[in-house]
Amino acid sequence: MKKLELEKLLIKDNVPKKLYSLNGGLPNEVLCLNKRDNILEVYYSERGLKSNLEI
Fold this sequence. Notes:
- The chain is α+β, with helices and mostly antiparallel strands.
- 18% of the residues lie in helices and 42% in strands.
- It is built from 1 helix and 4 strands.
- The chain has a 4-stranded mixed beta sheet with strand order 1-2-3-4, with no helix packed on it.
- The two termini are 16 Å apart.
């Protein structure tokens, strides 16, 4: 699934945009998806830290 497809699915399922970030970064209290050097990271961002990082 591509990022755009995921975003459309989240919108369709009424998942509030304030709960996730598909552009990585370190927003506060948000589930994040980030692609870095062909590596996909999924993590929870809280207080500027990546928690529960999965690669």
